[in-house]
Design brief:
globular; alpha/beta; five-stranded mixed sheet; Nucleotidyltransferase, domain 5; 37% helix
Length: 407
């Protein structure tokens, strides 16, 4: 199996997709996804360029583009005249062609984000709490869905789906998060997807919150496209995701990238990364010092009021993340390791710098150290990750499927 090639602008070299384009009518749905994926990567592209990149005939591309235009998913740009021949008309995604609603259920807050076809946020809502209760979360989500439909009005039928990003086994770690066990245990047999489907006709998707956050980076991130990277998202608890061959890899049970459970060295023996790089660890420090930890969950941009405690937490978190990255890189040759989370941008920058220092202290013999990068979604990562679920399912190509078929 070969790696998916990278183009000069950092995106996927879509000439490789020609192995999968088909001029047979039975492949129309796949070909439409192929064209939408290509247009999404390029931003704007003419039909002749689509044909060259995908291997589809000019006639097939014309039929597909016309259909996508008719569905309101693509729009025409101004003609671009060359030296010879007819002017080329670039096609781009129609921002209002589709909408996606992401719902993040966290241990300290529930957030929703309504985004358009380009991934731009149209509306946001948020509620915070000491711990999540199923009934209150569902009611908040119901209100957010109704609000999104009202906001879009006649275009509400363009909501392609609702994605729920939530920790799997939310009832676990009740003690660590300070929540009453009997309250968190209500989630054990609660089907959040079924609960939302009772009052909406939109498709509902569910994914682990950290994996979904990784999907947001893949779909909406401002970084050049990476083909293979490991992603760490630091929230109440640290988690993550894995991207292989340009596609989100969720694994056999959907729990791939459960990085919080990764063993790392501790002061008295082996611990889990969750015990070192989670914000709940910082919350405990603040409570022990008699400080109010609520700014941690309020999307505040300034944590200077407890800088000493943040500094101490970052020292521990950076060491744990460094060990986790090195362990992961010994298994898969990741080109990058991204770190993001629900904290100020400056804290993220400092944390990445500290992780780089800690990695240099480790024995890396025989390991290709991945490039360290900051994520770009921040506190929005998980709600945008929820929104990315229907986007991937309805309109984009699974690159891992492509790679299997190219063997």
């Amino acid at each position: 199996m070969t790696d998916m090639p990278i183009s000069g602008d950092g995106g996927v070299d879509t000439s490789a997709l020609a192995h999968r384009g088909s001029n047979q009518s039975g492949m129309r749905a796949f070909n439409e996804r192929l064209v939408l994926t290509l247009v999404r990567q390029r931003g704007s592209i003419a039909k002749a360029q689509i044909a060259r990149a995908t291997g589809l005939s000019a006639q097939t591309v014309s039929v597909i583009v016309r259909a996508l235009e008719g569905d309101g998913l693509l729009i025409r740009g101004k003609p671009v005249r060359g030296k010879v021949g007819q002017p080329q008309i670039p096609m781009s995604l129609n921002p209002v062609g589709a909408y996606f609603l992401g719902v993040k259920i966290g241990r300290r807050s529930t957030d929703t984000a309504l985004v358009d076809f380009l991934g731009r946020i149209v509306d946001r809502t948020r509620q915070t709490y000491a711990w999540p209760c199923p009934d209150k979360v569902v009611e908040f989500a119901r209100t957010a869905i109704a609000s999104a439909e009202t906001r879009l009005g006649a275009d509400s039928h363009r909501i392609a789906g609702i994605g729920i990003a939530t920790p799997f086994e939310l009832w676990a770690w009740a003690e660590e998060s300070g929540a009453p066990a009997e309250e968190m245990d209500k989630w054990r047999d609660f089907d959040i997807r079924a609960a939302l489907m009772e009052f909406t006709s939109h498709a509902v998707y569910v994914q682990n919150d950290a994996t979904a956050a990784c999907g947001a980076e893949l779909a909406f991130g401002r970084r050049p496209h990476r083909q293979d990277f490991i992603y760490f998202h630091i929230g109440t608890f640290v988690g993550g995701g894995v991207v292989l061959n340009g596609g989100l890899y969720s694994g056999r049970t959907g729990n791939a990238g459960a990085l919080g459970s990764m063993p790392v060295p501790g002061p008295t023996g082996a611990e889990q990364l969750i015990d070192q790089a989670s914000l709940v660890v910082l919350e405990r420090r603040l409570k022990s010092a008699g400080l109010d930890p609520s700014p941690l969950w309020a999307e505040a941009d300034d944590w200077s009021g407890f800088a000493v405690h943040v500094d101490a937490w970052m020292s521990i978190a950076a060491r744990g993340l460094a060990h986790a990255i090195m362990a992961a890189a010994s298994v898969i040759d990741f080109e990058a390791a991204m770190i993001d989370g629900g904290f100020p941008v400056e804290i993220r920058r400092q944390l990445v710098e500290r992780v780089a220092v800690e990695i240099r202290r480790l024995d890396s013999q025989g390991i290709a150290i991945p490039r360290l990068e900051e994520g770009t979604m921040g506190s929005l990562a998980r709600s945008l990750g929820g929104a990315s679920l229907p986007l991937f399912d309805r309109y984009l190509i699974d690159q891992n499927t492509l790679m299997r078929d190219m063997r």
